[in-house]
């Protein structure tokens, strides 16, 4: 694929860099230590207009696609992976709304998002179907000008913090396999109950919570597309945007691990010799291998994003594989950084320990690494993914 220079992306990247340096990074340690939702980060993204990254330009947004999403989440993830996850999930939710938005949805949601007045997110996962997020059991029942939603969602990022939630259900007419509908559910709608916060091993600041829906009335105009047609969303919108947002986040973690290892190698000096760790050949080769692994993953992620944005018919296996590869690289490099940094890293809540914990989320967050490998193989072999 041809690498195209984008002045718009350069401007957005410069804006993101200033926010990361001035606002996100200084509070990143507290976000992880205390498990607090990064309100300061999301507020800065809102005030700068970055929440409208996936909103069409005609509605006041930036009209960006997969490349911009993974690029910005990598920058944020390098400083604070929890902030990158929260921002990324908002962007994915925005992309799902924008894909088939009606005039009402454009005015009531997308324009508000672009103006920095609205945060959205996805609510797809359920305990019963686990990693199979495309098989919801939550139901919607038509009742006049509303649908009544019933079910329980799990692991909702930005839970109890967002202004709306893109909730997946089965259509009101039945629950055939592959039936997949999406509704925009506003925060504060009667019948919504937030469950206790989930305290994760990593990504501690994403405010992941369960959401119970009991006869929740949702206006019919909040239905995205038509009932039951939205299995289309899974591989055309939900998966590409989610996978690229997460690939960017884990790429940022991997970069941070390489940076920390390099800093330690240059600065750690032995008192008995006066030499640094960087002068040892074994450390040089180990660090070189880390750098090569990072560049390989970066190239795959960039290729996937650019093919996806270009509508390349061969883009799917690239997109499916990039989160799995970025996650594996992040885990491996964070582990290598801990080995290189030694005792200074092997302590409770060290920066390297945080990166390793955050990176480990990649394998268990749906779609899991194993599931993505299966889908990639099927896509390459010309087989149905589901």
From TrEMBL:
Name used for this protein in its record: Acyl-CoA dehydrogenase
Gene3D superfamilies assigned to the protein according to its UniProt record, in alphabetical order: Acyl-CoA dehydrogenase/oxidase, N-terminal domain (1.10.540.10), Butyryl-CoA Dehydrogenase, subunit A, domain 2 (2.40.110.10), Butyryl-CoA Dehydrogenase, subunit A, domain 3 (1.20.140.10)
Native source species: Pseudoduganella armeniaca
Residue ranges annotated for the Acyl-CoA dehydrogenase/oxidase C-terminal domain, each copy included: 245-380
Domain Acyl-CoA dehydrogenase/oxidase N-terminal: 15-116
Domain of life the protein comes from: Bacteria
Cofactor(s) the protein needs: FAD
Keywords on record: FAD, Flavoprotein
Pfam family, one: Acyl-CoA_dh_N
Record keyword Flavoprotein present: yes
Molecular functions per Gene Ontology: acyl-CoA dehydrogenase activity; flavin adenine dinucleotide binding
Domain Acyl-CoA oxidase/dehydrogenase middle: 122-216
Family: Belongs to the acyl-CoA dehydrogenase family.
């Amino acid at each position: 694929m041809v690498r195209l220079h984008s002045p718009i992306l350069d401007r957005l990247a410069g804006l993101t860099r200033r926010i990361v340096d001035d606002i996100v990074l200084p509070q990143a340690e507290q976000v992880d230590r205390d498990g607090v939702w990064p309100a300061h980060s999301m507020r800065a993204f809102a005030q700068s207009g970055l929440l409208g990254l996936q909103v069409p330009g005609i509605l006041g947004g930036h009209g960006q696609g997969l490349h911009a999403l993974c690029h910005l989440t990598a920058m944020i993830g390098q400083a604070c992976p929890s902030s990158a996850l929260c921002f990324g999930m908002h962007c994915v939710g925005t992309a799902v709304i924008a894909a088939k938005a009606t005039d009402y949805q454009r005015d009531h949601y997308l324009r508000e998002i672009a103006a920095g007045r609205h945060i959205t997110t996805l609510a797809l996962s359920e305990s019963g179907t686990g990693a199979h997020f495309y098989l919801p059991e939550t139901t919607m029942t038509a009742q006049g000008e509303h649908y009544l939603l019933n079910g329980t969602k799990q692991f909702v990022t930005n839970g109890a913090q967002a202004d709306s939630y893109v909730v997946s259900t089965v259509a009101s007419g039945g629950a055939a396999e592959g039936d997949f509908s999406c509704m925009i559910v506003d925060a504060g709608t009667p019948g919504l109950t937030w469950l206790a916060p989930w305290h994760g091993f990593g990504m501690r600041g994403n405010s992941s919570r369960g959401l119970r829906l009991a006869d929740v009335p949702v206006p019919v105009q909040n239905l995205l597309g038509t009932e039951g047609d939205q299995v289309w969303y899974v591989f055309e919108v939900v998966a590409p945007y989610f996978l690229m947002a997460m690939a960017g986040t884990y790429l940022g973690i991997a970069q941070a691990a390489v940076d920390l290892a390099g800093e330690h190698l240059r600065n750690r000096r032995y008192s008995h010799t006066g030499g640094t760790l960087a002068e040892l050949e074994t450390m040089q080769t180990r660090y070189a291998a880390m750098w090569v692994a990072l560049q390989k993953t970066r190239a795959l992620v960039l290729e996937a994003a650019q093919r996806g944005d270009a509508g390349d018919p061969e883009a799917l296996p690239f997109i499916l594989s990039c989160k799995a590869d970025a996650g594996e690289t992040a885990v491996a490099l964070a582990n290598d950084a801990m080995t290189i940094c030694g005792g200074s890293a092997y302590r409770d809540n060290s920066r390297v320990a945080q990166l390793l914990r955050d990176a480990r989320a990649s394998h268990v967050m749906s779609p899991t690494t194993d599931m993505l490998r299966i889908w990639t193989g099927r896509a390459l072999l010309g087989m149905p993914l589901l």
